[in-house]
Design a protein that fits this description.
This protein is mostly helical and 384 residues long. Helices cover 75% and strands 0% of the residues.
Length: 384
Amino acid sequence: MRVGLIGAVLLAIGLVAVAFGVIPISDAIGIADRVWPILLFVVAITVLAELAATAGLFRFIAEQLARWGLRRAWLLWLLVVTLAAVSTIFLSLDTTAVLLTPVVIAVARHVGLRPMPFALTTVWLANCASLLLPVSNLTNLLAADKLPNESPLYFASLMAVPALVAIVVPCVALFVLYRRELLVRFDHADRTPPEDRVLFVLAAVVVTITVPALVSGIPVWIPALAGAVTLAIGFLARNRAVLKFSLIPWQLVLFASGLFLVVEVARGWGLGVLLEAIVGHGDDVGSLERIAGVGAASANLVNNLPAYLALEPTAGSPLRLAALLIGVNAGSLITPWASLATLLWHDRLASLGVTVSWGRFALAGLVVAPLTVGLAVLALAFWG
C-alpha cells in the first residue's frame, strides 16, 4: 500500500507539473507513448505468473528440484539458483522475488533446512540475474529502445558475459556465507499433487509457449498479454474466485508512472547537467566503471528505476548504457529500497514469518554489490 501511495503522490506531482507547463504536453505524450507497452507487459506478466503459481506450477517445479537434490543441500541450492536465474531472465525479477521466494522457503522448511540461504538467493538473483534480456527488468525494457537494435538477441549478445558474471559472483558469495548450512544432507521430500490438474496443465502449456515468445522479437507485451488472458479464461471456467483485482500490480503501475513524470521534472530543473558532469564520457574501462558505480550508488540511495531514468541521457553509447544497467540492476543489493523487488521480497518473507536483519543484509551487500558490478563491467569492456 505504501508503494501505491508514494506512486500516487509522484503521479500527482507530475500531473501538476504538466498542468503548469513545467513539462510540455508534447513531452508528456511522448513519455506515455514510450511507457504504456512496458507497463502493460508488467501487468500481463505479473497476472500470468500469479495464476501459474496458483495453479501449482512453481510449487511442482520446486518440489521436483528437491527430489533431484538427492538429499544434498548444496545440490538443492544449486538447482534453486538455476530456477531463480531462469525465472528472473524470462519472467522478470518481480516474479522471482514475489512468487518464487515463498515456494523455495516452503521446500526448504519441508526438508528441514534453514530458509534464509534460499531466501537470500532469490532476492540477490532477482536483481543480479536481471541483465540478459529486456523482459528481465523494467530498466532493461526502457533501455532496449535506446539501443541501435531493439532485438532481444542483440540485447543478449551485448549483455551475455556480464550477465553470467553477475550471476556467478553473488552465488559464490552466498555459498561462502552459508557453507555450513549447505554442506549437509536433508530428508526426502514428498510431492504435493495439484489441486486442479486441468489448470495445472494449462499453466504449464501457457508458460512453455510464452517464454520463447518473449525472446522472439515480437513486442513483449503481446505474448505476455495473450498468456495472461488465456490463463484468466481457464480460471474463469474452473476457479473464478481467484480472479481478483489484487492480481493486477496497480501499485507498481502507479509508482512507475509517477517516477517517469517526476524524473522528467527533475531533468527540466538541471538534474541532467549535474549528472553528466559526475559520470563523464567515454567507453574505456574507467569510464564504464564510473557510470556503473554512479548507477549503483544512485539505486541504493533512492531506487534503481529513478536512478536509471535520471542517468539514461548520460549513457550515449550501447556500452555505456549496458554499464549503467549493470550498476542499477546488479548493484541494488545494499538498501531495502534499492529495487522494488527487494521490498516485495521482504513483504513475502514477513508474511511467512521469516525475519531479515537489514544490518546483515546491507553489510553483505556492501561487499558483494561493488564486486559484482566491478567484475561484470570488466567483462562488458572486454567481451561486450
